[in-house]
Amino acid sequence: MAFSMHSHSGQFCPGHAQDTLEAVIQTAIARGMHTFALTEHMPRNSEADLYPEEISAGDKIDHHHTNHHAYIAEAVRLRSKYAEEITILIGFEGEWIRGDYGPLVLQLAADPAVDFFIGSVHHVHGHPIDYNVALYAKAVAASGGTEEGCYEAYFDAQFEMLNVLKPRVVGHFDLIRLLATQKDKQLDSMPGIWEKVLRNLRVVVEQGGLLEVNSAGLRKGLKEPYPGRAVCEAFMGDGGTFHADHGVAQVGTNYGRAVAYLEGLGVEEVWTLGKAEGGLVVKSVSLADVKATFKE
């Protein structure tokens, strides 16, 4: 069965995605998804963390929290409406900009309507590392002026996030390489960084977490999805989740390429989240079944 554990809509992530939440769900159904997670970005806790287009639009933090509550209400409505056609999980993408985001993430996750959250890092020393080259350069400068230092700071922030939040799903594990000078360089070729990568992967395994296999990197010019080949090989056997996000146009974008990527790694089985009487469960799905049920 085809599935995705990571999605966004323009309705609740304006400027970051497109289309209504309902349109995204309808497209997921049309593309053969059996399970689809709704994971809009969580609200932030400081206006200093707003993105440039949000500042230009005059956004305020209070609006972000109102928007989150509206999202949860709409997600609950749509989960019920489409229950006969697709299993909808309700979640959000957690942010780890600073340590003080921990309590906010856990507070939002305590909502009984929320099934899970994705643990993600998009910032290094408070600067976005996947937004544009200029802001990435600020993150590098704040990390001692070297990309190696920025990579290390990223994986240290991720390590802190993993230990505090213990997410069921870890988002785009090596997002840091998106705007790097050598973005397709394998991380195991950089010893100091690779040590931190392996440390973080061990934590994910110990916590029983899942790494998503996120095809957005392909859409943005990377040669491999997140995580890259070396990371996947190190994590082999522990499964992952597939990714589709940013509105109707991107639901399932490069899904086939992500499946082929996993086939090339020798993966035969992947893991997804589902609902059962006792709550959220982790279940295995054969990659062959995922490939057969997805509609291009």
UniProtKB/TrEMBL annotation:
It is an enzyme of class 3 (hydrolase). Gene3D superfamilies: Metal-dependent hydrolases (3.20.20.140). It catalyses: L-histidinol phosphate + H2O = L-histidinol + phosphate. Keywords: Amino-acid biosynthesis, Histidine biosynthesis, Hydrolase. The keyword Transmembrane does not apply. Residues 5-216 form the PHP domain. One of its GO terms (cellular component) is cytoplasm. Pathway: Amino-acid biosynthesis; L-histidine biosynthesis; L-histidine from 5-phospho-alpha-D-ribose 1-diphosphate: step 8/9. Coiled coil: none annotated. It comes from the Eukaryota. InterPro entries: Histidinol_P_phosphatase_HisJ (IPR010140), PHP_dom (IPR004013), Pol/histidinol_Pase-like (IPR016195). The keyword Amino-acid biosynthesis applies. Its EC number is 3.1.3.15. CDD domains: PHP_HisPPase_Hisj_like (cd12110). GO terms for biological process: L-histidine biosynthetic process. One of its GO terms (molecular function) is histidinol-phosphatase activity. Belongs to the PHP hydrolase family. HisK subfamily. This is Histidinol-phosphatase. The lineage of its organism: Eukaryota, Fungi, Dikarya, Ascomycota, Pezizomycotina.
